[in-house]
Amino acid sequence: MAPPKVAPVSPPPVLRIARELRPGRYPLLEVFPGLDRVTAFARYPCSPANRRNLARKTSLEIARRKGEWMYVAPHEIPPNADRRWKPVTSPDDCVVVSGEHLRKSPSMVLYLDILHELCHVVQRWDGRELWDETYSYVDRPTEVEAYKFAVREARRLGVDDRFLRDYLRVIWVSPKEHRRLLTNVGVGVR
Fold this sequence. Notes:
Blueprint (H helix, E strand, L loop, with lengths): L23 E4 H4 L16 H10 L1 E5 L6 E3 L21 E5 H6 L2 H19 L15 H16 L4 H7 L7 H11 L5
Parallel strand pairs: 2-4
Antiparallel strand pairs: 1-2, 3-4
């Protein structure tokens, strides 16, 4: 996804982003210090103990590959992975981000992305399938739920639909699917 170039507002000031880290695996809060203290973090649908585990036990791997993306590392390569996507796998909870995305993308985009991906970690704890191919990406319940979570926080901070439309434009979906994703997560098509 090519992130929007101008964010209308900033993430909560308690959050910092360690953009200078080299490729490798780090504790989540080393890359996103303060994330566990933002309002949205307390809204994950899990117990306070599990939220603490989410903050303390989730790692973040900075990958060398180019692009502007972030995803939850699957435990095994998903059946829908093709030759273009060679995901990092991990037996533990790990979010993977491209170094380019971490260094160059607007802070609000990174903030919404990490909220979205941590929502997937919680979903996986609940036994939900993150790569359920019986749904298209834009209709997949886990994706819609994770995007709604991020959109809710963006709106709480005053982000407008124009920014969200750009934020929700991902390269692997058609313009028609993009409009369906917008509808599914409650963002005005225009």
